[in-house]
Write a structure and sequence with these properties.
The structure is a homodimer of 384-residue chains. Chain A is an alpha/beta fold and 384 residues long. Chain A contains 15 helices and 11 strands. In chain A, a hairpin with a 5-residue loop joins strand 10 and strand 11. Chains A and B meet through helix 6 and helix 11 of A and helix 6 and helix 11 of B.
Chain lengths: 384, 384
């Protein structure tokens, strides 16, 4: 029932396109939203790469932009190949379909393991690294029963709850979302588990470059992958202000179901989960609570062919309009401030064409002077 | 804020009336609803007592009805006096105001201790007898903080959670609702606690006769007192199918707030409480959750002067209509069966006067041939 349709449509990148995509997403000031706007504006990644220095200069950057070289990209692809990993572009058939729907989905995902794992509907299981014995036991039970019911499990390869969830779903399908590069697993004691995942029915995914050591600030992005790739997230033991609550909040923002396991108010490891219950998370005391809530959505979810958040594909270079004038650029910058605004409001306020506004925003973005916010809002990055 | 208005209206029973009330409620086949109907029909308890043998005979009883003698009642009052206890009639100023509102509130309540405890707004705290250390600790915390905030605590004097709740509210006000007579505390190890309650700012209450040893079937009635006398009930650790869940269900039926403390799904002592959360109980991880939910209702609740469920008071004997004819009685009995029906439907169906129908039902009731159900429905008791 939760098994997805094998028929999928999508783009297929050539090796040359994949190298250009990798260079583009690895270049400075290019995040997922900017990546999409660049491809949509210039028609393909190679044209976008060629335009970056000029965009950055026009956007007011005082230093030349760092662009990933073709040699760097080829080297990363080579590293991936040695590890048995590949890159999947957003819109390609093996890209996890639920992840494709979220705001800021990574344009390229490094993956290693059994790609057929992406065909399952996934449930995130997350929780404390210093979980209680009961918490670990419960995570195993949930992962095993959801796996038996045909769902894949996605988690973060961390100690405690994550480890238990992966272990219990090795046979049925498990995805480890990593905060660092695929060749830099964390924590070290889970290297063996990662190998088991990738050599069996599991998959490791990362949006970070090979060789990248995960730092604290990378974990919220990893949590975004979990929340984005899942139909729902189960939180088992989570302290106040823990990473698992970030995953739960993101899951809620993405319209995913949020399940929380109740626990003693006297155990700090349950403060976060009990708080989620107060905020309306589904009270979860066994796998049946999850299966019941998922039943109506498991069959139909996430099969939309193309999402608004992804580029049109990598096609012909587009014939471009002349760049906006200095006067137009000044009017747009003057209309921006530290408060996030809608792009439509900028267009209305300045009376300029949409394409001029989008292009100036792209320039500012590439120059590192624009902040992009949820819901497509933008603000000017203030000088420190 | 939760302290009630000192100004209360109500009836005041004379010693002679109190003896008659006690005889009536201690007689066979007289429960709270029958008690009310008898007083309302005959005008006072003495007239009702005098009518019981004839009612029972007309209702078809083959054995003479057992009526509590005046000597029995005087003896029970004497026992109460020796213990420092009294009886409060429903409608008298010291009767717990919230309890007065419920369906089947006891007409007479035996009380011992500080009667000013009934002036507080009460919160029930109930849970497992074999509570965990954490559960006991949490019950103490909740009881102490609610007490500090001006609420009284009501519980069942049982081991575990009840004991912790009473102990922590000895200084601020606590009510022990008992399943047996006030002179038959259960469990034995809580006799000392009961003495502390009654000699301090606490109160013990019971609707059962002095000398009555609590049996298993008496505990649900005790739970009814707790749910009825409280504005809300907090359940801390409760197994599936435990007595605390009965208290919670009754509280819900009475329109009281139900609070449940989350716990590990792997601990059987939390299955009941987690189940309550699934059914919509308020997730409770600290006293502030309770105080916040009670704030809007604490000041205004339960001050209605007279409730539909209580008798008009004990007044003049009423001039009675002639009893229904045998033919009328047969038509009413024929209209009844084992399925509960509304009294209005019987009136409509038979075309008889309301007073004739009510009187025949009272006869059947006193003869032990009528079952009364929630919502005022009645059915015929089938012969075994």
């Amino acid at each position: 029932m939760p098994e997805r349709s094998a028929r999928r449509n999508g783009i297929a990148l050539t090796e040359r396109q994949r190298i250009a995509w990798l260079r583009l997403i690895r270049s400075d000031n290019v995040g997922p939203a900017t990546f999409r706007d660049l491809i949509n504006h210039f028609g393909n990644a190679e044209a976008a790469l060629a335009a970056l220095p000029e965009l950055s200069r026009r956007g007011g950057s005082t230093r030349p932009i760092r662009i990933a070289s073709e040699a760097d990209a080829v080297r990363e692809l080579e590293t991936a190949r040695r590890l048995g990993a590949t890159f999947i572009g957003i819109g390609e058939p093996d890209y996890p379909p639920a992840l494709r729907q979220i705001d800021g989905a990574p344009p390229l995902l490094a993956v290693r393991g059994d790609l057929s794992a992406t065909r399952l509907a996934h449930i995130g299981i997350v929780g404390s690294r210093n979980a209680s014995i009961a918490g670990v036991k419960f995570a195993s039970l949930i992962a095993r029963e959801l796996g038996r019911a045909g769902y894949g499990i996605i988690s973060g390869l961390a100690r405690g709850i994550d480890t238990a969830a992966h272990r219990a779903s090795l046979e049925t399908g498990t995805i480890a979302a990593m905060a660092g590069g695929l060749d830099r697993p964390y924590p070290p004691e889970n290297i063996g588990l990662l190998e088991e995942i990738c050599s069996g029915r599991g998959l490791a995914i990362s949006e970070m470059p090979f060789g990248w050591e995960a730092r604290a600030r990378d974990f919220p992005r990893r949590n975004r992958l979990i929340a984005g790739a899942a139909l729902g997230v189960v939180v088992i033991e989570a302290a106040s202000r823990s990473g698992s609550l970030i995953t739960a909040r993101l899951a809620g923002e993405f319209g995913r179901l949020v399940f929380a396991v109740p626990g003693s108010p006297l155990d700090p490891r349950c403060h976060g989960t009990n708080g989620l219950l107060k905020d309306g998370a589904i009270v979860t005391t066994g796998p049946e609570d999850i299966l019941q809530a998922l039943a109506p959505i498991a069959g139909v979810a996430n099969l939309a062919p193309r999402q608004a958040e992804e580029p049109d594909g990598d096609g012909e270079e587009k014939a471009l309009e002349p760049p906006p004038t200095e006067n137009e650029r000044t009017r747009i910058i003057d209309a921006l401030g530290p408060t996030p605004v809608e792009i439509d409001d900028i267009i209305r306020h300045t009376g300029l064409s949409a394409s001029a506004v989008y292009l100036v925003l792209l320039e500012l973005d590439i120059a590192g002077r624009l902040h992009r916010h949820a819901g497509g809002l933008v603000s000017l990055a203030m000088a420190d």
